[in-house]
Design goal:
The chain is mainly α. The protein has four helices and no strands. The model has no long low-confidence stretch (mean pLDDT 86).
Length: 103
């Protein structure tokens, strides 16, 4: 019984930590796309906005990245850290789940 609880705690901790790391990676990509868009000449951004439908997926994602508010990025970053901390807590908690020793 305790072995199953221990395995599930490790599994849950790994899933939560992995989700937090994935969210961090997505936020980092969004920051990179924003920097690329901001570094582009204003006229090219305007043309890209007008011909948005005809752009490839990467260019569309870069243009969308500019519209994401900073508050959303901050909250997503906090959520990612919370997921990582919660996952680490589940893994550490699994070490303390042991059956009672019979004497």
């Amino acid at each position: 019984m305790f072995a199953i609880a221990r395995v599930w705690a490790v599994f849950l901790g790994g899933v939560l930590s992995g989700a937090g790391i994935l969210l961090h990676a997505q936020i980092a990509c969004l920051h990179l796309l924003r920097e690329e868009v901001n570094g582009t000449f204003v006229l090219w951004r305007w043309i890209g906005g007008l011909t948005f439908v005809f752009q490839d997926d990467l260019t569309q994602a870069a243009l969308w990245a500019e519209e994401v508010p900073d508050a959303v990025l901050r909250e997503s970053d906090h959520a990612a850290w919370a997921l990582i901390a919660l996952g680490a807590l589940c893994v550490v908690m699994s070490f303390f789940v042991r059956p009672k020793r019979r004497r």
